[in-house]
Write a structure and sequence with these properties.
Length: 135
């Protein structure tokens, strides 16, 4: 039986830029940064959490060059299909902290049935939601 999610992946066009955004702006930490020869295996995650997000460049070994180009075009348009949801203890404070770092938001903190959330996109167009869940 499956017991947890450990690894997910989003496409990014530049892993160094992604690393800067996810670690220096959002406050995640590097879990693995390894050159495998055929690709750079770069994962980040919330400090203290064992779940990882692979910051994957479109290309081999998972796809051929023509497919990779199509994926890069989709990612550039914000249509790459990547999506991440994070929890926070205080959505409004987190929003203000990220705004001070120059993050561009898709929408501000809003009261929802499940709590307070807001949206942003990473530098490549991947959607991110940050939620303060109602307890």
């Amino acid at each position: 039986m499956i017991t947890s999610t450990r690894l997910s992946s989003i496409f990014v066009l530049d892993q160094d830029e992604a690393l800067d955004f996810y670690c220096n702006t959002l406050g995640l930490e590097v879990k693995v940064d390894q050159d495998l020869g055929f690709m750079r295996w770069l994962t980040v995650g919330v400090p203290g959490d064992d779940r990882e997000i692979l910051l994957e460049r479109p290309g081999p070994p998972s796809m051929d060059d023509a497919t990779a180009e199509q994926v890069r075009e989709l990612v550039t348009k914000g249509a790459g299909g990547g999506w991440i949801g994070f929890d926070t203890d205080d959505a409004r404070r987190t929003y203000d902290e990220l705004a001070a770092k120059g993050v561009e938001f898709t929408d501000g903190p809003s009261e929802r049935d499940y709590g307070i959330d807001f949206g942003l996109r990473d530098p490549f167009g991947n959607a991110i939601r940050v939620v303060q869940r109602r307890r």
